[in-house]
Amino acid sequence: MPSQAALYARVSTEDQAREGFSLEAQIERLRSYCKAREWEVAGEYIDEGHSGRTLRRPAYARMMEDRDEWDTILVMKMDRIHRNSRNFMEMMDRLRGWGKEFNSMQESLDTGTAMGRFVMDIIQRIAQLESEQIAERVYMGMQQKAKSRAGSLGAPAPYGYRHVGGQLTVREAQAVQVREVFRRAVAGEPMSWIAERLNRRGMRTNRGRTWSVWSVRYLLRNPIYAGYVRWDKVVRQGDHDPIVPKEEFLRVLEDFLRRARSEREREEIQTLAVAMQSSEESEIPGAARGVAEHAV
Predict the structure, then answer these.
(1) Beta strand 282-283 with 228-231: parallel, antiparallel or unpaired?
(2) How far is Cα of residue 246 from the mean position of the Cα atoms in its chain?
C-alpha cells in the first residue's frame, strides 16, 4: 500500500515568504518526490512567516492533529520542520509512539532506519547551532541600529501606528483611542476601567485580542507614543511622529513611579524619564528586549 504523506513547508518571516525561500517551490518539489515514489499526498501544510524555533505554528499543529490521515511527514529540508534539536527529538518520540515516519528530501534520510535516525539527530543539532548563531548576529545588528537612529527597528507596529516604507506612520483612527487612554490615565482612571471601556466599544489590539490591564499598562509605558524608541537597554528619540505630548507621557510615568512594586521597576521608570528629558541616548538597567515597537 502506498505511503500517505503529509507535506510540510515553512518560511521564517513575511519578507522571506514574499522574496526568499518560495513556499510554492517547496510544495511543488514535495509533490514531485511523492509522485516518483508512488506516495499519495494526504495533506499539504504550509506555515508562512513562522520561525522554526517555536512550536506555535498553525499548520504544524493542524498536521499533528490530522495524524490519523498520514503515515509519514515529508519536508524538503530538515530545518523546515524544526530548528531546535529538543523540539525535533520530542516530535520524533511522538511519531514513533504513533507508528509514523519522517522523511527529508534534501538530506535523503529516512527515520525508518537506525542510521537514518542517528544522522538526522546530528544534522538537527548543527541546524540548531546555526539558528542560534543567526539570532546572536541579528541581536547585535538590532542593538547597533537602535543606537544609530536608523529608522524603524522592524518589529510589528504598536497600536496606533503602521509601517509605511520602513517608517512608523500614525494610524489616526487608533491614535484617537490612544490619546483617550492617556487622558483617562492622567485623570486617574484605573486601567481596568480603561480596558473595559475599550472592549465595550468593540476595540481590539493589533493582535485581535480584547484589552486587559496588562495591555493598557504596556501601552501607557511605551515611550514610542511620545516619539521615543526603546530597544533592549537603549532609549533614544525616534524619527516618527508622537501621538501624545512628552509631558503627558511623563505625567503617566510619574503615576507608575508612585505605584512601583520593586526597586528594579522604580529604577527602570526613573531612567526612562531621565532619558526622555535629555537629548542624549541612555540605557535602562534590565530592560526587556525589543519593547520599542511590539504590537499589543
Answers:
(1) unpaired
(2) 28
Enter the C-alpha cell of residue 64.
Answer: 499533528
- Phi (first) and psi of residue 9, to 5 degrees: -135, 150
The structural architecture, per CATH, of the domain 149-283 is Alpha-Beta Complex (3.90)
User: Mapping DSSP to helix (H, G, I), strand (E, B) and coil, where does residue 27 land?
Assistant: helix
Distance CA 198, CA 210 (A): 8
Bridge partner list, 162: 169
Q: Look up cell 514574499; give the residue.
A: 18
**pLDDT above 50 for 291:** no
- Residue 43 amino acid letter: G
| Per-residue cell: 24 | 510554492
pLDDT tops 90 at residue 208: no
Could you say which DSSP state residue 153 is in?
A: -
Q: How far apart are CA 63 and CA 61, in angstroms?
A: 5
Distance from C-alpha of 271 to C-alpha of 257, rounded to nearest angstrom: 11
Cβ density class 204-213: b for 16+ within 10 Å, e for less: ebbeeeebbe
Q: Residue 3 is placed in which grid cell?
A: 505511503
Per-residue cell: 129: 547551532
Ranges in the chain annotated CATH 3.40.50.1390: 4-136
Tens digits of residue pLDDT in 38-63? 999 999 999 988 888 888 899 999 99
Distance of alpha carbon 293 from alpha carbon 157, whole angstroms: 5
CATH architecture of 4-136: 3-Layer(aba) Sandwich (3.40)
Count other C-beta atoms under 10 Å from residue 56's C-beta: 9
The per-residue pLDDT for 78 is 82
From-to residues of CATH 3.90.1750.20 in the chain: 149-283
DSSP assignment letter at 154: S
Active site residues: 12
State the CB neighbour count (10 A cutoff) for residue 264.
11
Whether 199 and 253 have beta carbons less than 8 Å apart is answered as no
